[in-house]
Amino acid sequence: MPVRLNPIGVIYSPYDTKEKAPIQGVFQPQGKGQIEIFHEYAEGLKDIETFSHVILLYLFDRAGEIKLVRQTFLDDTPHGLFATRHPCRPNSIGLTIVKLLKREKNILHVAGIDVLDQTPLIDIKPYITIFDCYPEADDGWVNHAEERPKPAGRE
After folding, report:
1. What 3-state DSSP class applies to 126?
2. DSSP state of 112
3. Could you tell me which residues come within 8 angstroms of residue 20 by beta carbon, excluding any fewer than 6 positions away?
4. 85: closest CA among 140, 148, 20, 8?
5. What are the contacts of 133-140 at 24+ separation with CB within 8 A?
6. Which residues, at least 6 apart from 2, have a Cβ–Cβ distance to it below 8 Å?
């Protein structure tokens, strides 16, 4: 069954290369960006400014080779792709949560962005604590990982 996704906008960030983008936005909360929603979808932004954070779903349009088991940016031990947030995925869909600073018409100003500049946006959802926060959740192998720079040559 074919799946068709149409971008609803574009994500702009200060990161023009994979090397400059943070591993996760939480590691660079000061990283600011803009989300441009195409005019035909702008009406769908009504009330978005009532939320402090939003979830962005986007296309990893510059991701490399898909490997089902690989090392991650945070760990040298190989893990199954679906136990990671690695960008090289069969369907190239990325997810990030950003702080919504303000809305100006069809432009959202955000902080904590970790996405490459000019990335196609496929959806926005509000971050709703009662739905999206599970304090009892276990972070799996990431519990033992520490923040570090991206290892050179590793996508």
Report:
1. strand
2. S
3. 14
4. 140
5. 140/83
6. none
Q: What is the token pair recorded at 47? A: 């009330």
Q: Which domains does the chain have, with CATH numbers?
A: 9-129 (2.40.30.70)
Phi-psi region of 92 (alpha: psi -120 to 50; beta: other; left: phi over 0): left
In this structure, which amino acid lies at residue 38?
F
Identity at 83, one-letter amino acid code: A
Residue by residue, pLDDT tens for the chain (155 residues) are 888 899 999 999 999 988 888 777 777 878 999 999 999 999 999 999 999 999 999 998 988 889 999 988 888 899 999 998 888 889 999 999 999 999 999 999 999 999 999 999 999 999 999 999 998 988 888 888 877 777 777 77
